[in-house]
Amino acid sequence: MSADPPEAPSGPSAPARSLIIACGALVREIHAVLGQARRAEVDIRALPATLHNRPEAIAPAVAKLLDKLAPRYARVFVAYADCGIGGALDRVIREYGAERLPGAHCYAFFSGVEAFSARAEADLTSFYLTDFLARQFEALIVRGLALDRHPELRDVYFAHYERLVYLSQEPTTALLARAEAAARFLGLAFEHRPVGYGDLARALDARFSASVPP
What we know:
- By secondary structure, the protein is α/β, with parallel strands linked by helices.
- The protein contains 10 helices and 7 strands.
- The chain has helices spanning 27-39, 58-69, 88-95, 106-111, 113-118, 131-135, 137-143, 154-157, 173-186, 198-208, and strands spanning 18-23, 42-47, 75-79, 99-100, 126-129, 163-168, 189-194.
């Protein structure tokens, strides 16, 4: 996913191709939701999931890609939520007439934004994993937060959490075991909620289904 999408043809006969600029944590799920037929008309460009360790860099990284790629496409969709950056991403994508996923972060749109909001108070002390984060827990959480080198930081970073909630998309026995191991590592109670693709599927279906034959 590191190479640029192919140069989209221009001119009156150019196909109405679409571009998705995606968080690297969502690429697998986006491919699954779109399916082979729709992927044929959509280019996907991923940014590193590690940007979430410094969220202030997300909006500038998306802006750089939009500036470079948006003119080639009839439609541009940004597969990020707000991601805790206080509207900075919305200000960027408005400049290019793009859209983004609903909600404050991926946990909300996988759960369904309304359902997630309804549980917000009860989940105030919950730490979330998705399928991607269950797979990448060691890389993004343990090594990404230097817990392997400074284990004492675990109780600093996670002092206010009581429970790890695994919001699964397509859970397997191996992923469930990884999520349970992550909860043990963090010293948190474990809960599994199979939520599927939630509002990610609904958002992509609404925007990229028109050109797909029935």
